[in-house]
Amino acid sequence: MHWFNWVIVAGYLAYVVGDGIRRSKRTDEIEGYLVANRSLPWWVVGLSVMATQLSAITLIGTTGQGATDGMRFVQFYFGLPVAMVLLGVTLVPFLHGSRVFTAYEYLERRFDAKTRSLTSVLFLLSRGMSCGVIIGAPAVVFSAIFGLNVVWSVALIGVPTVVYTMIGGVQAVAWADVKQMVVIVMALLAVVVVLVVQMPVSPDDALRIAGATGRMQVFDFSIDLDETYTFWSCVIGGTFLMLSYFGTDQSQVQRYLAAKSVDEARSSLLMSAYWKIPLQALILIVGVLVFVYYLFQTPPLLFNPAHEQRVRAEEPTAYAALEARYAEAFDGRERAARAVANARASGEDGALSSAIASFQAREAEAETIRFEALAMADQATGETPREVGDAPRDVNYIMPRFVLNELPIGFVGIFIAAIMAAAMSSVAAELNALSSVTAIDLYRRWVRPQATDAHYLFVSKAAAGFWGLFACIVATFAVSLGSLIEVVNRFGSFFYGSILGVFLLAMVPWTTGLAGFVGLIAGMSAVAAVNFGTPDVSFLWHNVVGAVTVVVVGVVLSTFRRRGGEAPNPQS
Amino acid sequence: MTNGTRREEPEGDTRPSTFKVTLISVMSAQVVALVILWILQARYGG
After folding, report:
1. Structural domain containing residue A192
2. ipTM rounded to 2 decimals
């Protein structure tokens, strides 16, 4: 990468850390450090909520998904707006109004200490690991693209984030998120402009060509529980997932606990309700345009440069032959793509249909060759061979390779800074949340309930440092153990819906602490049964199963105990 | 700690009318987003 791009990246990192330290001036008390003295305006909280959810995986993985699979993934966010409205009238007023530091603290006030502690520990386990994955995913890409050692890549993202989070607390994190969100949106818009300017066909023709490969297909109304992203799984399962994530995950709850008032907290969530779908559509459109761009500009046969190098070294003859075939297929596909644009300009329907059919045949031919190349890479790296229809393993490398090879100097630096911004904003929020839960829900609750404010502040900062180190260690392992990412995601989906169920149960007046605890165990067991019994069912449905089981078991148990004449919630 | 039958008093306005207005405005925005995506799919998807 050109030195000027590195200057932009270094300048950005120095600015974020410096600004974080500057923000630490008003965080010398635990209330300031953990919830910014409940003083942040709605737009800062709203941008922070959006930046937290938009990780580097979104920026590089989702654009790659747009390039390989098209717009379909935008359905994933269809449940978000209604979830935000529901949270605005249910959990947000309760959590903000009860002046808690963490979402789980509220569970003890409503239920009992064991329900609070169990949810806190589940959160720490899941988020501690996923924090490592959030650092590890872009680190592995940086490592392959820049030829950096993995440990350095992890440190490049992890160390500055840990420093400003430890020192500045939620205030530094939220204000850094605002700037990071601006950098991310600017970088995406810059890429769109560059793509439109450099593309040899008009944007209208580009989308028509992408549509011929199915990439502009947004809606899937099929009723298939095994299909991950259908309209129904995303609207129903997605709503539960979003309710759980934004309503009960401390990394999100902590954002709106820092808002000035309930109304400001609510408004901050509505920002996501209005802007999340357009933002995701923009990210996917960028990917789709990158796909079209590579119809006219020879793309690498393998986007992961490390894999490309390895295959080239191990099977030079076979790979060279494959590259020659790919070059020929590329020429044919390019001509066919131009024919689609010309046929459209001529306005003849018959000519357009036949040009599209020809282009589809050429695209299938190029894809077959790429499938063979990916199989060679799997063999060289010892990965399990993928099946036809599986996403290509180099999907996360498409965008970084495009940025490095095709964007002008300066734009590259901005985009790499944006990837780092996306990773850092998500990691900082997680570290903030992990330190709050460790200090408030475990340390203050069980170890030293009566210590001074300064002591808890010190423990919170130490916990942020500890979890930062833990995440960096997990990240270096996640890089070498690809399947760890899947394990972490599956582990999280085991109890995400169940925790939402406990919070929903808390809003039913007569439910008891025991019912909450038993319901939580029952919910997680039900999800485990569905997961192991019918492994093909989309994980989005796990959230529905978990939440509904907790509520049903909790309500039935509480009703039964009440009829039995027992007092509700004896521990409170 | 509160009793199990007692709920925390929420701050702010949670009246059904406010909820309806918010719900209608957010859902309207979503419908607009879905219609735009639908138009994109209809124009380019097939």
Report:
1. 3-294+405-563
2. 0.81
